[in-house]
Amino acid sequence: MLPADGAEGKTFAFAGPRPLFSTMTRLPAHVRGAALLHEPRFNKGTAFSDAERDQLGLRGLLPPSHLSIEQQAARILEAFRSRSSPLDQYIYLTGLQDRNETLFYRVLIDHLEEMTPVVYTPTVGEACLKFGHIYRRPRGLYVTDDDRGRVEQVLRNWSGSKVSMIVVTDGERILGLGDLGAFGMGIPIGKLSLYAACAGVAPDECLPVMLDVGTENAALRRDPLYTGLPHARIRGEAYLALVDEFVAAVQNVFPGAIIQFEDFGTENAFGLLARYRDQVPCFNDDIQGTAAVTLAGLMATARITGRPLADQRLLFLGAGSAATGIGELVASALVRDGLSPAEARTRCWFVDTKGLVVSSRTDLAAHKRPFGHEHPPVPTLEAAVEALKPTALIGLAAQPGAFTESIIRTMAANHDRPVIFALSNPTSKAECTAEQAYQWSDGRAIFASGSPFRPLGVQGRRFEPSQANNAYVFPGIGLGAILAGSRRITEDMFIAAARILAGSASAEALATGSLFPRLGEIRRLSREIAEAVVCGAVAGGLASAPVPADLGPWMNQRIYRAEYQDYTATS
């Protein structure tokens, strides 16, 4: 198996099924008294009963009152809402996670719609920019190029006995913000919070990892509070050797754990996915997760316009890993619907920094060449919109304001219901706002964005803009793959997730312009996607875990719920 750069890749043997989620957590014998109150996994604060306080040496260390988790959550919510900015709310929730993990997840699960934009996009982008300046307590593992030859030892330093899901980044392309080096650790931390909250993957089986290989961000290297190695990035064979060692170490230390690659630069994003996807259970959320949620959005537009996916012409601004990843998944879905691969790819066109991607260009990177179609050169996005008359315009280039009034009005002149997806994150990088899309199309645009926009009124109509949030997809994919012990994460799993998501919005939601259900419904949706992934793994011969015919009770026993345990029964 060869990686994208042609260097010979390493073969990794699948290590067998991973352990299943634990439904009860036994309190370690040494965690008693004041030490227990500083262990976020076990701490319950004022919810400890009198019996627990006596048995665990807590008498006198807590106020005498007893508060239920519901009462505690009400207090947390009041404090959260009193914070003056989303970043302050992020810092507050991070502190809660570091004190009382169960309470953190209870509040997050019960208020997903309100809190997801804080624990993840768009606020996590601001948090990453200031990560070293708001740093409080270590979370996750840092693997550096200084650790070559001892990466397995580093992984064994992780305190968790089981790991089922790993999110790893090297920080080179954090959202639309660029190279943030080790400050990018906020992304794996945030993603794994959503695995637990949105799908019920046990938080103690989630591991965030930063591959610190340096940064090209000179400002960070000069920052005295930078938390990473202040040198230029290692590249080439040295870089691949470190990642190879990391992937091999995961197989030895955490057998069968799923690896999610996150926010790598375009070249490494494609190269590492190609290098490992047929060797270990892994995926790249920027390529495949973004592709699945965007495909779902495009499929859902057919419920509004009556125009099937095969009849659409998509024009992408940007031709990096996320954009061409969407193109590849769209093409794959169309092939499954009966088109030839060549026909399917002609539905997708791309504009990069040098204009329209066409076959006559000699400067195309490998991931762009399949979409280099026969067409005269076109220098700009606006000219491409005029020439191609696309039904959908999809932005992933982190160029704020790129979807101008002229461009959107041209889209609206060519089509009664133009599709405008401004998917770049965070909000400051969006190609246009929801209000601009609706105003400039006279309220006819079907809009989605990467970061959330508030509901608004335009020309007497109320719109609830869609957020094409990867959290609709990746938690369910991960949960299903973990439960099945899937040896691989396949393209069909992402297409199945997209189809489920595309059909999930209600008619009432579609009428307000929303292509997706509310985030508050995401645990139900993640379960449906997980069931499809489990069934797909079984049907494809990829499941290494015993899967019963009746999935319902089996899944119920394995899905994490943020509830306190009675430690008098487990200690």
Question: Can you give a write-up of this model?
Answer:
With 571 residues, this protein is of the alpha/beta class. Among the domains are: 135-286, 3-Layer(aba) Sandwich (Rossmann fold); 288-472, NAD(P)-binding Rossmann-like Domain (Rossmann fold, 3-Layer(aba) Sandwich), CATH 3.40.50.720. Helices cover 42% and strands 9% of the residues. It is built from 24 helices and 14 strands. It has helices at residues 33-37, 50-55, 69-82, 86-99, 101-110, 112-119, 123-129, 151-156, 186-199, 218-222, 236-253, 266-276, 285-305, 321-336, 341-345, 381-388, 405-414, 434-440, 474-484, 491-502, 507-511, 522-539, 551-556, 567-570; strands at residues 141-144, 165-169, 206-212, 258-261, 282-284, 314-317, 348-352, 355-356, 392-395, 419-422, 446-449, 456-458, 461-463, 466-467. The strands form three sheets. Strands 8-7-6-9-10-11-14 form a seven-stranded mixed sheet, sandwiched between helices. Strand 4 (258-261), helix 12 and strand 5 (282-284) form a beta-alpha-beta unit. It is globular and about 80 Å long. Mean pLDDT is 93; it is low at 1-8.
Characterize this entry briefly:
It is built from 24 helices and 14 strands.
Tell me the CATH topology of the domain at 288-472: Rossmann fold
Bin the strand percentage: 5-15%
Shape field? globular
Please estimate the helix content: 40-55%
Helix/strand/pairing class, anyone?
alpha/beta
Mean pLDDT: 93
Radius of gyration: 24 Å
